[in-house]
Specification:
It contains seven helices and 13 strands. The chain has 243 residues and is of the alpha/beta class. The protein has an eight-stranded mixed sheet with strand order 5-6-4-3-11-12-7-10, with helices on both faces.
Amino acid sequence: AQVKGFSGLNFIAFIFNKFFATSVEIPIVINTSFGATMYKIYINERPLICCSSKEFKDLKKSHLDFVTNYSDGNPKFLINYIDLLEKNKRTPGVILYNEDPKALFKKLKSLFSTIHAAGGLVKNDKGKLLWIFRRGKWDLPKGKLDPGEKKKQAALREVEEETGVVGLVLHNKIGKTYHVYRTSKKRILKVTHWYWMSAKDQPLIPQAEEDIEQAIWAEQKQTNTYLKNSYANIRLLFKMLTD
């Protein structure tokens, strides 16, 4: 059965429930980008997609209002597209295609200072999911890696610090998401690595110093409700579960 979501996103209910049906390691491998040869970076909550020329033929049919173009990775033109998403709110997204999207994505990444973060999608033994509420949005716990820290260690530490949960068990990696933000001096590309986690049902303590107002356990059937007031990369993360 399909459950109608937001912005055209459908969750396949039986698959979603299957993934959360157990707290043991989940035997699933998920692409770490939007697709096997497709990459999606969110800039101001709008996507810049790098894909192959073949993928573009299908993608353009469902993204008629996106700005699209072939790109050889020229930095000047790539910056123009980044500026477009930063400054023009009427542009819903950009698709750039090339015979080698991985090489194109590498050139795009070189225009940013990159930081890595890690976090978790946590299910408790009652089947509920862990959410945090911060700065007016529902989100999942995550944070930047400390110097020398492994991604898995950072994911566990950040979830524990932001929610007060204890006894976490880390399972498979779900994937990674990309989004861009600006400081006064430069653009930052934040690459967030996401993991399945499980824990026992327990009281949660939101980390106030990180502006987290709530940390809650929510029923799975409420997922779409929370995602409607969440971030684009969090919605993409859940979409990875059914792709």
